[in-house]
Amino acid sequence: MKHGRSTWDRALLPPDEFEERRLAVDRAAEAMGVAAVVGFEDSSHPGLIGYLSNYLTAGALATLIYVPGGEATLLAGLGGGRDHPFIKGMSVVQDVRWFPQLGVGIAEVLEERGVTEGRIALAGSGDCFNKARADGVLAAFERYEVVSFDDALDTLRRNKRERELSVMRATHAILGEARSALLASLKATGEVHDALVVAERVTKLRGCRDFRALVLARNGSLRPWPDGSADATSWSSDPFTVYLAAEYLGYWADLGVSEPDQGATASLCAQALDVAQASLRVGSSGDSLRSALSDQLGAAVDHVTLEATGMGLSLVEAPNLSDDASAVAREGDLICLRVWARDDRALKVATRQVLVEEEGSKPLEDSHLGWSNSLR
Amino acid sequence: MTQRPTTTDVRNFPSAGTASSPTLVDAVTGRQRRLLDAAKSSGREGVVIYTAAEHSLLATDGVWWASGFKPMGECALGIGPDGSFELWVSPEWDLSRAQEAVGEHASSVTDVFAAAKAWRKRMSLSREEVLLCGTDKISARRHPSAVAALGEHDGTGDRLLLEIARWRDEYERALALKATEIAELGYQRLLEELHPGLGEFAVVAILDGFLRELGSEDNFVLVSASQRNRSVHPPTDRTVERGDVLLAEISPSVGGMFTQICRSVTIGRAGPGIVDDYRLLDTAFEAGRDACVPGGPVRGAAEAMNAVLTEAGYGDYCRPPYMRARGHGLGIGSVLPGDVTVASKENFAEGDYFVLHPNQYLPGSGYLLCGEPVVVDPSGARLMSSRRGELATVGV
Which of B20, B56, B99 to mutate to probe the A interface, most A CBs <10 Å? Predict the structure, then answer.
């Protein structure tokens, strides 16, 4: 797996976008009465740092210290500052530093910014630290009242800004090219592994950093590619399914690919996806979506698994309607609907990224058409 | 000076085989036994290894090491007092692959700590009798669940696992050897494809695809180019131009064993300054290699490399931000001996596998890469690569 952004299309994701995000964080911080927000990021949890600075770490933990209204400071790199010129090139934050003792370093920056007491908010500490390291960092914050910024950040990130949607459309378009290349290779050689190599290469030539695939094995199980994909079903003779996901400029898209001979299970998969989208609206929950599937599909619903989650800087992020019983859709949420439909031999997958509206939802691909039409 | 064995001595390892081959099963059985024996020596009766399935060049995965199964999600493995073991797997859809690796020992769970707790009770083990490995990988968010199942643990198991797994068995060496062969072939392909006008990320797209075709399941790759590199970093959209020096840390993984070769390529004829600076790093590499002996201090290798550079007048550049480390460990279960730095407190041990690289910035040429994977054997550090890298030139 590849993590971390290393290309930046400034036309698609201009630096001023991050100024607007900063103002959004300012408002959230003010509502919480916090004097500073400190975010942590590792390669699996982009959190506040990816959102606010554009820097996505490839490995080493990164920390962002932000006092509303001021300039942010990024503590990042493997140590010693060798990688700071690169990090500055990938981030709108130019104050990049490194401290051997993280908690002490954060406290030092906070003090430098005039925050010597009061309430500060942390984002990502629960996921990016083990207990011992979390305790070590928190020990440096004894003078502060520490609260969590995780929920506030989820609220900001689940409702994608227009620029984020544009990048996600671009990612989806690249993935579409990868699918075309995959199919062309399959038709030419029939070799799934080779075809996935071709598909991955297409995404990376377009600047994607991370590419993932699941393949269907002959025993009906899903396999991550390339690990354990030697027994993948073949394009020509078996029920064939591949799930693809790619990340471009930090933003994810995914899709499913099946053989052209669409049988009953593929039809069920497509139908379930349509039902889920038609049912998704403000206030929808995982339960309400499953009820809609049950009403519309009858007994066939037993063959269907629905995932309905947020997507953006992570492949799966808030809101997680399918796994979190308390989660409900809000207006403007970007939801990825993934339907898995299974029969005795086959497993089909279909995905669709949609935007939640008051009375329904619309596919991400279509969400910019109204804007284009209004220009005419 | 100790006479070095030839490279071919260490390249004659058995075939890596496949995930289900007897070779891996034998290796995994031996690893579990060694870890359980060590746990019992420290007063414990059973072992639980945890992983959050975060894989990278510098990270270990004890579950992968002890089972031969590469986790895709949170997993744990329990080894009972009698040597029996269970593998608790998430996500649910990955069970089939786990069962191919370890058979009926694998089961699908929604909470690995709940599974570990139930196992502990079936084994009649108290919390104190269980050695927990991988505590450093348990997030603060998951920590309460771990404590409820297995009690508080101080990281003793983490260090013990690193120590036990630092002896890379023959199966791991075979994987490392295969990965290194792939890295070298990948580098040859890079030289064939590289030309002015190609984007850094396009170079990596070509390289990544080729490494995949050869059997690498992952590749931690740093490729960057500049007229004067400040450091090496992930590929950007900068295009390669004549006069650039392209740096490539090529680090494919096979079966979880990463390797790394570090190469420098001039686009167009290399100037004499770069040739001289590269030769200096090459000399530093050999000096460091001489210091990699069992029982010897890791810092000794860093100091030996620094001494060569200091003698040439570059002592001020033997520190960050002009360099980071003179090498680092590679492995599935252990990355000991860790970073090769003057601050290291580790000693080399026989079987240590790591990359040795005096990579650094020099004022005349910028950052240059020069490094190979090595194994510490009784007579010194042996190369895992077939030959030492050289300063290469393309586009003349």
Answer: B56
